[in-house]
Amino acid sequence: MIDWLRGASVKRPLDPEIELGGTRVPIVLKRMRHARRLTLRLAPDGSEVRITLPAWAEGREAIAFAHSRAGWLAEQLARMPQRAAPAPGGELRYRGGTLRLDWDARHPRRPAIEGEDLRIGGPEPGLEARLRRWLENEALRLAEADMREYCQAAGLDPVPIGLTRAQRRWGSCSDKSRIRINWRLVQAPDFVRRSVVAHEVAHLVHFDHSPAFHALLARIFEGEIAAADRWLKEHGRSLYAAFG
Question: How many distinct structural domains can be found in the chain?
């Protein structure tokens, strides 16, 4: 991520796309009323360049700034894991490990874990969609159990929890009444997913990142928040490789 302050503009033609390593990538602008600086980042799946800019910033200058940082963006894109859709005989990431995809049209359509295999049947077309639905169901099941545990630890009643497909945030808490968790966390080790759920539960009490928030999070979460944050920083993008 790169920040850009007022006064660093470069005059050049407006181009809503940028070429990165031979690939044309769209540039998406999003104005934020309270933003004080321009922020440049690549989407976690590499599908677009995102620029968040203040109300006073010129779109033309923001796009020119992205072009001036094409080298940095290309490096970020090159580091991203290549898209690898799940296929019969391949592997599926699940809770920090991998499951071998044991597909046979004669197997039951509903996936089932057997040892280190995930048995799944039905027609091969649509296999990826069925696997994604299974992972999403697993993500919701696990996150809901996490939420109930951490709410109890915080002295709170359970709240509704849902899934998100967001590409920038791993979790969110809205109006101190509902939690949403990125379904892709089901692929990460359990302590990573649980840290995100605990983080959002703490927001049910403290809707900020104050010392009181961090004290509550440290009390209810059994692991090391720093280790979970470090895992997401180093490996988070890899969670987008299988399903985009």
Answer: 3
